[in-house]
Design a protein that fits this description.
- With 324 residues, the protein is an alpha/beta fold.
- It has helices at residues 58-65, 87-92, 109-119, 126-135, 151-163, 181-196, 208-214, 232-239, 289-299, 313-321, and strands spanning 17-27, 33-43, 47-51, 73-78, 81-82, 94-97, 169-173, 200-204, 217-222, 225-231, 241-248, 265-266, 272-278, 303-310.
- It folds into two domains: 17-236, P-loop containing nucleotide triphosphate hydrolases (Rossmann fold, 3-Layer(aba) Sandwich), CATH 3.40.50; 241-321, Alpha-Beta Plaits (2-Layer Sandwich).
- A six-stranded mixed sheet has the order 6-7-8-3-9-10, with helices on both faces. The protein has a four-stranded antiparallel sheet with strand order 2-1-4-5.
- The protein is elongated and about 80 Å long.
- The two termini are 45 Å apart.
């Protein structure tokens, strides 16, 4: 699908800093500290996925960047504009897609999107709004009231509203929660198209598959602290574990003593041996695979097949956010 969202008349070079977060903290009345001196730079034209369990501080951080919540300390700049001292300029660059569409049930799709553009003081541009609605497969629904739309269509309207004023940054808070798999993949493509147009995407999601599919970089937040920020592929290589599974020609009752140094796991039916190793070691020297295969031959253990599996992003995420 090709789109023409045109986030800005002038697009700066991709990969340059778009959002700078320096030492941002938030303590609510009552003493609860939701964020603890978070610092982060998000580059122009990237898809950044912010992951964390419920209550980790994701929504608080996004709300502070968007100017909806005041930080207790630290600063945020959007394309060089301080989001407190130069609030209007910073906020104009941001589009926010919340989880729910509320308060506009009797409005039509067209009126809702046009009104949203007007809130930012943008001049009327029906041609641009039409392009948005067509790209989001909403043009045929433009005269429908929001209350008559399906959940998936309402989610598209939220994106259309957020794009109506031509922002350069788009925040997506659980964008595909509750939608079917087919629509989810369509929306992933919409997000990629936006990124290709130069829009910076910040995504929060509980679908680890979504981050694994789309994100360029991933940040993990836990108890208000940013515990990790890394390019997705580098994260998979560094923190992922690999498993080598050997299907045996004859079942074993137990792992031979000679193989104890390799810490192998025997499957319940005795038909397979599982060897776990650091994925950063690769399949050659350092992984221990060559030595293991030699030890198997010496021990008289024969196998008919073997295959490897790398840890998924979900497994890595769980290991990062679990309590010590």
């Amino acid at each position: 699908m090709t789109t023409a969202f045109a986030p800005s008349p002038i697009q700066a070079a991709l990969g340059t800093p778009m959002i700078r977060i320096d030492g941002v903290s938030k303590t609510y009345r009552g003493g609860f500290q939701a964020l603890k001196e978070v610092s982060l730079t998000i580059n122009r034209g990237e898809i950044f996925a912010l992951l964390g369990p419920n209550g980790a501080g994701k929504t608080t951080l996004i709300s502070i960047i968007c100017g909806l919540v005041n930080a207790s300390g630290g600063t945020v700049t959007v394309d060089g504009h301080d989001n407190v001292g130069d609030y209007r300029a910073a906020r104009e660059l941001i589009g926010l897609v919340p989880q729910e569409l509320t308060g506009e049930a009797f409005s039509t799709v067209w009126d809702t999107v046009r009104f949203s553009r007007g809130l930012f003081g943008k001049p009327r541009d029906d041609a641009y709004l039409e392009r948005i609605l067509r790209a989001l497969t909403l043009w045929d629904k433009r005269n429908n009231r929001l209350m008559a739309l399906s959940g998936g269509m309402k989610r598209r309207v939220l994106i259309a509203k957020a794009l109506s004023h031509q922002p350069q940054v788009l925040f997506l808070d659980e964008p595909t929660a509750g939608v079917d798999v087919e629509l989810r993949r369509e929306m992933w493509q919409i997000v990629r198209d936006l990124r290709d147009e130069g829009v910076t995407i910040i995504l929060t999601t509980h679908y680890i598959e979504e981050a694994e599919e789309m994100a360029d970089r991933i940040g993990v937040i836990r108890r208000g602290e940013l515990v990790l920020v890394k390019e997705k592929q580098a994260l998979m290589r560094q923190l992922g574990r690999k498993e080598l599974t050997l299907q045996l020609k004859a079942p074993l009752a137990s792992v031979p003593e000679a193989l104890a140094p390799y810490h192998l796991t025997l499957s319940e039916d005795g038909q397979a041996l599982i060897y776990r190793y650091d994925s950063s070691a690769g399949n050659g020297e350092g992984s221990g695979i060559a030595e293991l295969l030699g030890a198997l031959r010496e021990a008289g253990v024969r196998y008919s097949d073997l295959h490897t599996r790398q840890s998924s992003l979900e497994e890595i995420f769980v290991s990062l956010v679990k309590e010590p």
